[in-house]
Amino acid sequence: MRAASRLAFATVAVVFILMSLGNVVSATGSGLACPDWPLCHGSMIPPLRADVLVEYGHRLSAVAATVLILATSAVTLAQTSAPGLRRIAWLIPALLVVQIGLGGVTVLLRLPDLISTAHLINALLILAGLIVLALGLRPAGSPGPTSGGERMRRLTRVGLIVLLAQLALGGYVRHSGAGLACPDFPLCSGDLLPGRWPAGVHWVHRWLGVLLLGFFVHVAVAGKTAAARLVAALAVLQVTLGIATVLLQLAPAVRAAHAAVGYLLWATLVWVSVESGCWRRSLAPAARPEAGRETVHAA
Questions:
Q1: N or C: which end of the chain has fewer CB within 10 A?
Q2: In angstroms, how far is the first alpha carbon of the chain from the final one?
Q3: Which residue, 128, 120, 197, is CA-closest to 160?
Q4: What is the pTM of this model?
């Protein structure tokens, strides 16, 4: 089980790196540097251009992540009897197939906004599933769910849903070119409220982030764990980077960091949800039939 857990954690790290490289592709405008798929300019060996190497490096990283994801799912199915973990281990490869398809369609249809956003959402779901597997595969004696009670579980469930929506909004803002639809802060083109569709999406994303900052500070206070406090710290950093992204006119490094911190915030909140017991049924091993028979016999 220890080796299986280490494999799952390694897969989480590689998937996070892959997603971060995807941010670099987007921030540098390299998404169509390879205009075909699965080849790049009709060849397995792409032209040696900076934008092509950024995009092709992302694709090669996706191959490595695919191998690790499939290995993690296979090892999970071989090592655990927990029904919830086994369901997640079957679900992740299905999401992986969807992810590969969305990636190909994104290139072939020249980066459509909604498909690109769906590609991001699906990646976040894969990352969350891998984190639950990694924690669920830890050997006996590892730290289990911490205190916090039902209140903490409700907070983290709500937080996961709203944060997923916020990250999806951020992906749509990025892919639709609405990053500077409100080019100033805290106003939007000098107004309190936006007057156009792209600016409206940007405005909702901006202020939902501020609201989530307050929510995650509340989660840190309620959770009283290092992971819960990290959620609040990452939320502060995320909002700061979001403001800097606008004020620095979508500087590629800041823009990529803003997205990467958002994914790290998501991963940490998933971790907190496991800590607080949201996934305790998925992590529980299957009941042994002979134990039930012994109980009846003893009665």
A1: C
A2: 35
A3: 128
A4: 0.89
